[in-house]
What does this fold into?
Amino acid sequence: MPELFEDQAPAVAALSVAGSLGAEEKRPVLPPEFNWRDYTVMLLHVAAEIEHSLMVQYLFAAYSMGGPQVPEARRDDVRRWQEVVLGIAKEEMGHLVTVQNLLTALGAPVNLDREDYPWGSDFYPFPFTLRPFSATSLAAYVVAESPETWSGPKADEIKRVAFESTGQYVNRVGALYSRVDAILKDEEFLPDESFHAGTLPYQASWDEWGRGYTRGERGQDSGNVPDVKSPELLVFGVFSRDSARRALHEIGEQGEAPDADLEDETSHFNRFLGIYEELTAWPEGDQALVSRPVAQNPVTEHRLDESEVAALGVAEVTTSPITDPVTALWGHLFNLRYRMLLTDISHAFRLAGPVDNGGVLTGRGALVHRAFAEMYNLRALAGRLVDLPLERDAPDGPRAGPPFEMPYSLELPHHDHDRWLLQRDLVQASRLLTDQLLSTDPSCGGDPYLVALRESDQRALEQVEHILSRKGCTR
Amino acid sequence: MTSIEELRVLPPLAVGRLGAAVEPMDNYTAETDPDQPLAPRRLRPAPTFRVDRTSGAITGVETPGELRFTDGQGKVRPVAPFLEVWALTDDHVLRPLTLDLLRLNGLTPGDVRWRVRVGNHKIQRRTYDDRDRIDADTEWFSDHAAHALNGLCPNFLEGRSLPLGHARYLQPTPGFPGVRLRFTPAGGHVYGSAYTDRPTDPDPNVVDFLYDATKGTWRGHADQAGDPRLTIPAQIYAGDDGPNGSWVSRGYLDDECDGLVHVKLEVSGRELTAFGRIGAGPPAYAPDSVPIRTVADELDQALSGPRATAGDTLEQARAVAEEVLRRATETVRLMNTEVMNGNTVDGRVDAASTMVRQDTADTGRLFEPIMAPSLVDTAAVLALHQNVLAALRSGTAPWFADVLRDHDEVGDLTAKGRRKMPALMRGADGRSLALTRRQVDLVRLAARQAIFRQDTDDPEVPR
It folds into this structure.
């Protein structure tokens, strides 16, 4: 693997830049076509995409867990694990918005994009795959979040399982962050004035995004499931070199606990490892019952059902088209609400929060709330999709699961007025889909969730119209 | 056999509502609109007893075509609850006490005896002077006249009493043979305190002066800081700023009350008794909303204990979770969340009585808003609650058990603690409000269980 450190001259294209954590004493080397600031921004863009895709894959795994086939005696464990995985996904959301803060502080655009299939860049831990929760998929997550020092027979065994399940050596997420930190800490690469404290009102803050989760108070019981600690949402504002490095360090530590004792239960690595060990101690028959029979990589587009070979010789990524027409509508609705979520987050970053105690409020708070509301909608829709058939005329076949397909564009219009036009478009599109579901399918007629969603969309539409009619909305 | 063994007054607790109109409020239900599940509940007229004012007999049942909360002349119609007497007979059946049942036991309606005792001790609660207690007692009666509940108080002006409404034993008839008492609360007026040794300025806020401000201390009373007996929070009476930060009472009284309805019946030489509780509160100005924690929730907890029980089905737990969210949505609708959160309002800090003021006053901490100030736009908060309610209707497990405030977290002043739900609201002890332990536990039960469901599952299987 070529490395862009001085003791190995750059020989390949810019993106082949996976370094190792042990390389801290080495100085990073600038790839062609970049200066240091832009290179940092590019690496942070990659980091954002990794956090985003990990979060989505963890959510998919968590949503797949459960179902009526789970043996009664195993249910408390499964529900507990689901809470842990959901907690990790929530923490990844914190990482994702913190990376957006880093980008914002450097004066770069936010990046809520995510590489779809096929998958390639040697910083990415493993090919993006939406898979139901199982010991093999879990092995890949354990390795992706593992610290560099993790070794021994158990480590070798889990790495082997991860290799078999992903078709490649799983990269550690931490490698990218140590590369970014090696740049951040050096004044020659990035002078102090690269960090714009004035962007703080635009950045995400824990107070806005933390939603009552803990901040630096480890060990509080979560209220949902006994014995599961509340997730710890890390959202750091970035206003200087030190705050930028601290943000990255904390994110890295929450993933893999590089400086912590391996037994420290707070890292993603240890939480995943703990579940892996508990799950693999079960009889194999029970292990197979932990999740609903959900397809891999469900997609709404009617692609040909054939393997797409991803780049870099990784395992084949197979998508599972949703051919059941009603399920497909639910899948489209899921994708649309996912787009709304990303739009809301992105839009919120364009508006400043109040710098005092909120004497004057912008639409930012409403957008943050809308973003959370879409998370709740995604949860609700995923709950439907893991219970709906994937294929037409195969009611007892595999279940669909949430497709998480990326929208055609995440670009926001330049003028705020036009951003609200986009918001209106998305709500109207959702209304079309809910009306279609409510009117065309008898099984959905009067579905209490769809009826409620239609109503909340109607109310959202009224709010958006109100904003659009206001003189304060600038063009 | 239908020999009467014991008596009950049902409901055991009835809450009336003040109102000055002559005709009490009609009966109604509040239902969720299936087509607009996020909207406020719809009020629907319901069958209502009509009582003849002269005879005190129920003359019929009517369902009004429309609901009116006032008499059209600006006066609120009082909510006047009926209390029924039920009998436990020797076959262990609880049945309404009726003319027939009385006759079978050799009794007539005239053998049923009632006594209503109510009080308003708000002044005495603050002055600690027993002569400030206001009490009314009808003594025992068996007739069907309206018995005024006149609140007497040693510190009142000569010959004055506080009207607390009236109680009436309704005359059982063949058409409506049950034994009932109706409690009609007072008009909802504010009364004042007058001096007897000097002139008293007229006061547009009061309908009359009842309290002798020369004899008693209520007018001019100020809670003494540091007194351990004070209400929490203290100084919750109509008043004005006084010296040294004191809050000086204007000497106002209201005509709310609560108390007991006793019933007595001698059967075969045995005296049977029972009682129910009544109270009168202010009118419901948001009758299509239910507070997030009600007396009914308290009674449910008293009955079933603080935890979910083996008899609670998942479906019931889910229904509780949805009801909590619905009520939260209804509550947010009535709040100015920007003010309640402690945001700066038109340049003013500490613009209203809020939990932020409470936290600041109790602990000397910095006046700090509860939620991030950017988040509390009222329309946005309402929309968020509606969205949570919508998502909950999908059958997914409630995920917000995490942010519900536990009963032992009401004094947690960390950012996380102050931001727990219900937010921005005060409980009876001056700290943040929490749901009942049982409400919280039922939401958690639903949160733990719902991922194993399938749409085809039978919803009513106990755990």
In short: Chain A touches chain B through 62 residues (CB under 8 Å).
